[in-house]
Amino acid sequence: MSQHDYLDELIPVFTPLLAIKEASRCLLCHDAPCSQSCPAETNPGKFIRSVYFRNLKGAAETIRENNALGAVCARVCPTEKLCQHGCSRSGIDTPIDIARLQRFVTDFEQQTKMKVYQPGRKDKGKIAIVGAGPAGLQASVTLSNLGYDVTLFEKESQPGGWLRHGIPEFRLPQSVLDGEISRIVEMGVTLRCGCEVGKTMTLAQLKDDYRAVLLTVGLSKGATLPLFNDASPVEIAVDFLHRARAHSGNITVPQSALIIGGGDVAMDVASTLKVLGCGSVTCVAREELAEFPASVKEFTTTQALGVSIIDGFTPTAAVGNKVTFKHVRLPGELTLTAEQIILAVGQHAELEAFAGIQVQRNTVETQHYQTADPAVFAAGDIVQGDKTVVYAVKTGKEAAQAIHHYLEEA
């Protein structure tokens, strides 16, 4: 396939007529279970009602008041496990396609140049946020609305974190992410890219200059397995996705690829390879289908592209481009050979620069998002909990409120 395909969204958008038709299937539940099931409290019950009554402006306002990354979540959120899982319509036929309705509304917001966010007051002092991924971006909006002067520090040359450097463009176009970030900057949030704690500045310096510091650095480094030290060529999944995204899909791909892992990152790698023209793509995961880690949306999209997915096998040996697996429950082995091997076996955070912060296996120890240092807070993937974008938004909102509560009492 061509480079153009990498830049086109795989899932088509609703037309206005189809959006109204889908919203009209809503049962308009009192105390809507879909809204109860959204970690970010985006309130789909309310915005679907607005779409139903042709009030797209009101629908957009509902989404934005609750979720600064509404257009992103509409594309990458595992809705089948969350809001759509709670949908009352499931007992009749199929749940409302909440994600596509949310995408339709946020596309309308972008096309009509709606301005839901207003510039913040900045009268309650300065807050530093380290990491401009989803948790940091959401926290900056919540804190700005509360009256704080927020500066986001990002080590990369552009903000967005995993949203920019990991998720393929056919799932999350760069223009959508840029639109989300421009709204946040227009509120008065200061963005400082190319600033890395431990190199450009220290945590101690941030604490001196700001009333509180929020760490939202995410899990940016891909893990490897010693088993693959003798394998070649091997690439870490996050590095491959970063490379594909940086070049807008204009990269050379092998004719055959073997991906180790079964999460959403593995699915993103597999679908990227297929979209870019790789003839044979195989994913091997140690989890069996009943507890497969990838979201249903990612899994089915990847399968539809022609990726072979083998479940229940774990690698036992790797030499050159040949990998041997054994089944996790049943006797039996499997040996596969591919031109390229890609490891999607987890990610970890780089937290060495944050001296004095208690860390246990990629997780910063917090109490209501506050670390042992009362002026330092943490949110996003580095705190305990789910590692999805919508949960990052949730923790960003809650950490911002925790900072506000701490400073109000100080």
Automatic annotation (TrEMBL):
Protein's UniProt keywords contain Disulfide bond: no
Span of domain FAD/NAD(P)-binding: 126-396
Record keyword Lyase present: no
EC number of the protein: 1.3.1.1
Domain Dihydroprymidine dehydrogenase: 8-113
Gene3D superfamilies listed in its UniProt record: Alpha-helical ferredoxin, FAD/NAD(P)-binding domain
InterPro entries: DPD_II (IPR028261), FAD/NAD-bd_sf (IPR036188), FAD/NAD-binding_dom (IPR023753), Helical_ferredxn (IPR009051)
Recorded catalytic activity of this chain's protein: 5,6-dihydrothymine + NAD(+) = thymine + NADH + H(+); 5,6-dihydrouracil + NAD(+) = uracil + NADH + H(+)
GO molecular function: dihydropyrimidine dehydrogenase (NAD+) activity; iron-sulfur cluster binding
Keywords, alphabetical: Oxidoreductase
Enzyme category, top tier: oxidoreductase
Summary of subunit composition and partner proteins: Heterotetramer of 2 PreA and 2 PreT subunits.
Function (record text): Involved in pyrimidine base degradation. Catalyzes physiologically the reduction of uracil to 5,6-dihydrouracil (DHU) by using NADH as a specific cosubstrate. It also catalyzes the reverse reaction and the reduction of thymine to 5,6-dihydrothymine (DHT).
Protein name: dihydrouracil dehydrogenase (NAD(+))
